[in-house]
């Protein structure tokens, strides 16, 4: 009997294998901007370390100078609602409020915790969630865990969104529009001003924005696309992660105080988990404070990103991206895997993205650029592609 049960898993894995969709955990060693696998050194073109801060030794050394055995706290030992709410939490949330000029903010263990926790907490069966078709898996999971009704609109199709709002606003107590600012697979972006205008059409519509790929990267202070498009205060749930450009771990929301208070009471992924270790929160604080001034890195990243996008288009690729996330669209999974492996042999660590992460027949190699990458390296890579 036991044997039979395992057989089902083996069969499913074999099916994935046949479609070139089977995944494995890569065994790699990190060396600054490079990764090493089986003695082969490759330039890391798959990292979310957009500002290059995770590989910045000087930053880590500066942080370590302020650490002592007394203030190096590697665990919080408890939920924030019990004894896990340390000063480091308060200080990080105060910094977020100061930077975003917001009433309130709240920090979570990860962006995934944030997205699967907030949506079920703030919605009920009288809520309709309208999500962009391409939102991240964590947002989909959050919607699924909620009791809200939901519907997805075609990617960035605001006409369809408007008609959905028009059709449904009288049938629900509340409608929440859910989108990312920079989308994680196509690297294109939402028009936030347009979304804010749509939200304002009806008094019972709220806007949830995930800035995972934009925090640190966009805006004069690196606060994201909402800063860049000057609409930070218009977004009801302004969220992001510290795990990408900010070189740390954790998620955050910037919001009205009443929403924070509500989440503290209702959000299961905040209440029923051990809080982040204070040392992580201190590191996030340290990096976030410094990241606001890194305009030069943001401009450089913008420059190399548009350079790569232009060269891909010149080579005949379709390129939906407007950001540092740049897909090389191929289509077929097998061909995508083959091409990614070929580029790895040539010294460029880039990875295939296949269904179910992206729709069928849209397999692609996903490149994400960081400020640690040199322009010559991009040119070199493009000629080999
Ligand atoms: C990475 C990502 C998350 C998850 O954030 P983590 O901090 O890595 O858990 C959430 N939303 C989007 C859009 C992401 O790209």
Q: Give, in spatial order, the strands making up the sheet with the most strands.
A: 4-10-9-8-7-5-6
The gyration radius over C-alpha positions equals 22 Å
Shape: globular
What is the averaged pLDDT score?
Answer: 96
Sheet with the most strands, sense and barrel status: 7 strands, mixed
> How many strand units?
14
Bound molecules: pyridoxal-5'-phosphate
Secondary-structure element string? HEEEHHEHEHEHEHEHEEHHHHEHEEEH
Uncertain runs are none
Helix and strand composition category: alpha/beta
The end-to-end distance, rounded to whole angstroms, is 49 Å
The residue fraction in helices comes out at: 40-55%
Break the fold down into its secondary structure elements and pairings.
Elements: H1 2-18, E1 29-31, E2 34-37, E3 40-44, H2 57-64, H3 87-100, E4 104-108, H4 111-122, E5 127-132, H5 137-145, E6 149-153, H6 158-168, E7 174-180, H7 192-199, E8 205-210, H8 225-228, E9 237-241, E10 251-255, H9 257-266, H10 268-271, H11 278-291, H12 295-314, E11 325-331, H13 333-345, E12 348-349, E13 351-353, E14 363-368, H14 375-384
Parallel strand pairs: 3-12, 5-6, 5-7, 7-8, 8-9
Antiparallel strand pairs: 1-2, 2-3, 4-10, 9-10, 11-14, 13-14
Helix pairs in contact: 3-11, 4-5, 12-14
